[in-house]
Write a structure and sequence with these properties.
single chain; alpha/beta; TIM Barrel; 2 domains; eight-stranded parallel β-barrel; 12 strands
Length: about 600
């Protein structure tokens, strides 16, 4: 009997060792992948109405390789526009019609995207604007779903019923679809010629609760699919903690329901507070982070923001002081924190357009890698990026210094590190456009003109205008250092090495234009008040301004890797140009004309 007892003991010992080994393999095996229940998502945000963006981030295998476990498809051909509504029996998309062919082609693209994502081993979620319905369906049901103003209304029972039918057909048609990302704040119809729509939030908190409960029931409960409900809306859901809680506290939690929130209190702008809704409430949250910053060059020049996103931005200790949470590090251990959704590419409108994704990849790599293992420091992840990209020796110190300095230079060049900067003023510069100090034009559509005049008026009244201009020259000084550092950086990929140099020169020349533009406008603004202009300084500044534009254009001519250039016009929401003739150039030319008259 004794030998048998020893054998049993030995077997028990071996079994115990196997369990321990398996446990250790599981623990250490997930060190390079997301924690269980964590979402590491990415999206290429294609420009509405334009050709789809060419990007490595469209490839699910590339996402998988970089630690992502989910892909958000956002080509603005929404998944719920790729269904026929045949169940209604109303012939919404008649057979053999061009509109039905469009729907069927869209459906084929959806199926291909699902197949590719699953083949790579990641989930796929479709970005979905609510409300978007077929034009013919709306015309048939107009009296039952539209309000007195002709807008589709979620206050109408038939509207809810049509959405139940819609959601059923979406998941019946695309059973492999892992879930939806829901947006209510804006409705883009640029890519869906046979559909129409509008926002559903007409009664504030009540509207959100009604819509979320519908989605929860139809998607999360009935079909066991994910809903990522974006708080990006208007009226407080996104940036007001009380409003957010008034909505979410009235929604029962579900494992498939997650709220998706930008890290900023507002859009992706510097000097904006960290979003106060993050870390609050009872529901899981993922944090949206933009890697190709739409208000800050879109990858045309160095702009490393992930140190600020993870550890807190510089301005939170200067002119934008705030209490409470200021960064992802502060909320990473909260039970609501369930991951990160990076926008690797896109956001905003038109350009600048890039052909090299290097700066986008830096931001995306750091935020996704950190999200996979939040015990790592930002600097440790940054060092991993340098390892992957063959940045060695003295180049490492120069590259780190360049990247951290870029965040400081962008802040001073675009907004301010020291002075008050109202959130609306930040829009003076956006996409590929530079606003001026003209009065906001009397047009119904959004424009970036007028904000800078408000800023100049405040600064001049408080004796701060010259300090504001000096800060723009401080940014130029920092960009000169960045350009010098770029010459000292060596990479394994020589195209990327060259792009670091070209894009750094791009940043320098652009911010020289900005500094001289602000200087000209400040001299002119004071001259307008005094009815007397400093013509000597005005002439000097205009000469420099013109020279920098010449060099800026020459940079593009001489370098095929150079991004498309900024335009000295204010943004206006009118396709296809998205600008008129007002903006920085119009403001500069006003004072050029005054100078010429006084010669």
């Amino acid at each position: 009997m004794k030998p048998i007892q020893l054998n049993i003991t030995h077997q028990i010992h071996l079994t115990f060792c196997k369990v321990v080994l398996l446990f250790l393999l599981i623990i250490f095996g997930v060190a390079g992948s997301a924690q269980q229940g964590q979402f590491i998502l990415d999206m290429v945000h294609n420009n509405p109405g334009e050709a789809l963006t060419t990007s490595d981030y469209n490839n699910p295998s590339y996402l998988k390789m970089n630690g992502y476990n989910g892909q958000v498809i956002n080509d603005f051909t929404f998944v719920h526009t790729a269904i026929t509504y045949d169940a209604l029996g109303k012939d919404i998309f008649p057979k053999e019609s061009p509109e039905r062919k469009w729907v069927l082609d869209a459906a084929a693209k959806v199926r291909l995207n699902i197949k590719m994502a699953h083949a790579a081993g990641i989930k796929v979620y479709y970005f979905t604007d609510i409300i978007v319905l077929p034009k013919k369906l709306v015309s048939i049901y107009k009296n039952e779903i539209c309000d007195a103003n002709g807008k589709i209304s979620f206050e109408k029972p038939q509207t809810l019923e049509l959405h139940r039918i819609m959601l059923k057909e979406v998941f019946d048609s695309f059973p492999g679809l892992d879930g939806l990302v829901i947006r209510t704040g804006e409705t883009y119809l640029n890519n869906v010629p046979y559909h129409t729509g509008n926002g559903p939030i007409t009664k504030g908190v009540e509207s959100h609760i009604k819509l979320i409960n519908l989605l929860r029931d139809e998607v999360c409960v009935k079909r066991d699919k994910m809903v990522f409900y974006r708080t990006w809306s208007f009226g407080g859901m996104h940036d007001n903690a009380k409003y957010y809680l008034d909505v979410t506290n009235n929604i029962e939690t579900h494992k498939n329901l997650v709220f998706s929130i930008k890290h900023t209190k507002g859009d992706y702008q510097r000097t904006y507070d960290f979003n106060p809704t993050l870390g609050s409430g009872k529901h899981p949250q993922i944090i949206e982070v933009q890697c190709q910053r739409e208000y800050e060059g879109k990858g045309a020049y160095p702009n490393y923001v992930m140190n600020g996103v993870i550890n807190g931005f510089e301005e939170f200790n200067t002119n934008t002081k705030q209490s409470g949470n200021t960064c992802l590090y502060d909320i990473k251990n909260k039970p609501t924190f369930k991951g990160v959704w990076s926008w690797s590419r896109g956001g905003g409108w038109v350009g600048p357009y890039i052909t090299n994704e290097f700066w986008c990849k830096l931001n995306a790599y750091v935020i996704s890698t950190w999200a996979v293992n939040t015990k790592l420091s930002e600097e440790a992840v940054f060092n991993k990026f340098m390892d992957v990209n063959g940045i060695k020796g003295d180049s490492r110190k120069a590259f780190r210094q360049l990247c951290l300095l870029s965040a400081q230079a962008v802040l001073r060049g675009h907004t301010s590190a020291a002075l008050p900067f109202h959130e609306d003023w930040a829009f003076w510069m956006r996409d590929e456009f530079l606003g001026g100090i003209g009065t906001k034009p009397s047009v119904r559509t959004n424009t970036s003109e007028g904000w800078l005049k408000n800023a100049f008026t405040y600064y001049e009244a408080n004796g701060l205008l010259q300090q504001a201009v000096s800060e723009k020259y401080e940014a130029v000084s920092q960009w000169k250092t960045i350009a010098e550092l770029s010459d000292r950086i060596k990479l394994a990929n020589k195209n990327d090495e060259n792009y670091i140099k070209v894009s750094s020169q791009y940043g320098l020349l652009l911010h020289q234009i900005i500094a001289e533009g602000w200087n000209i406008m400040a001299i002119g603004f004071k001259g307008d008040k005094l009815k007397n202009y400093d013509t000597v300084q005005l002439a000097k500044a205009i000469k420099s301004y013109d020279g920098y534009w010449q060099s800026y254009n020459q940079l593009k001519t001489n370098n095929t890797s150079c991004a498309t250039l900024y335009k000295p016009y204010a943004f206006i929401y009118e396709a296809p140009l998205y600008h008129r003739d007002f903006g920085m150039q119009a403001s500069v030319d006003k004072y050029r004309s005054i100078l010429n008259q006084q010669k």
